Amino acid sequence: MRFRWTKDLPGLTRGGAAGRITGARLVKDAHGRQVVFRTQTLLAPVPAVHPGHTVGIDRGVTVAPALSDGTMREHAPWLTPGEKEHLRRLEKTSARRRRTRHRGEPTSHRPARTYDRIARLRARAKRRAVDWQHQTTTELVAAFSVVVVEDLKITNMVRSATGTVGNPGVNIAQEAGLNRSIAGEAWGRTAALLEYKTSDRGGHVVRVPARGTSQTCHRCGHRDPAARDGIRYACANPACGWVGHADTNAAINIKNAVGMPVSGRGDLGVTRSAKRQPPHAA
C-alpha cells in the first residue's frame, strides 16, 4: 500500500534518536483505512510527585463520572436526535431484510450499503465518546494526584439479560437497556485512561471494593438500600438525615474506602442491584 508522507509523526523527528520506525500495520474501520506506526522511543524520565489531592469517582449511567468534591462531568448524547433516528431506521430496515430473505436467495449490494451506514454511525458515536473521555480524564489527572475508583466486574454486570435456560432473566427489556447504557459509557476505558495518565504525571489510581458504596451514608455510615431513590440519597438515620445527590454520596464513600480489604474469596461482593441505576431515574 502506498501513502504520502506529509508530516513527521507527533513528538518524533525523522532521523532523530527516537524517530526510527520499527513497524506498521494497516487498520480498517467503518471510516476507511489507517496506517498505525510503531516507533522507537527513548525512556521517559520519572515524573515528579503530583502535588494534587485525592478524589473519589463514581462511574454511573445517569452521570458519567461524579466526583467526591461534589462536581460532576456530564456529556451530551453521543448521537444527535436526528442521527439516532437515522440509525433506528437503518437497523429496522436491516432487520426486516434479514427476516424476509430466503435461504439461498442471491444477495444485492443494498444490504451491504445499509450495514456500512450503520457501522459508520456507531463508529461516529464511539469516536465522540473516546474524545470526551480523553478530554475529561486529562482534566482530572491534572487536578488530582490520586484517583479512587470502584473495582467493578463490568463484564459480569453487562452479561446477557436473557439469562440461561436454568436461570432465565427477569425484566429483560429493562436489563438490556441498562446493559447498553453501561456499555455506552465504557467504564473500563475510563479507568484505563486514568491509570496511564496519572502514572505519566506522578499520580496513581486506587481500586476499592464496590460493595455498599451507593447504599451507605458517607456522613454517619448508616447503610440502608432504601435510602437511595434514583439520583437522590436520603439517610434513614434520624440522628443524621443527610440528603443529597446519590452519586456524590457514592463518590465520597469510594474515596473513604481506600485501604479496605478485598474479601477472602478474591471477589468484591458486587451485586447487580447495588450499582446499576436506571439511566433516566427521577
TrEMBL record:
The Cas12f1-like TNB domain, residue ranges: 187-254
Stretch list, region Disordered: 73-110, 263-282
Basic residues compositional bias, start-end: 273-282
GO molecular-function terms, A-Z: DNA binding
Keyword DNA-binding attributed: yes
Keyword Zinc: no
One of the GO BP terms on file: DNA recombination
Domain Probable transposase IS891/IS1136/IS1341: 46-160
Annotated protein name in UniProt: Putative transposase
Segments of skewed composition (Basic and acidic residues): 73-94
Family as reported in the entry's similarity comment: In the C-terminal section; belongs to the transposase 35 family.
Pfam families to which the protein is assigned, alphabetical: Cas12f1-like_TNB, OrfB_IS605
Alphabetical UniProt keywords: DNA recombination, DNA-binding, Transposition
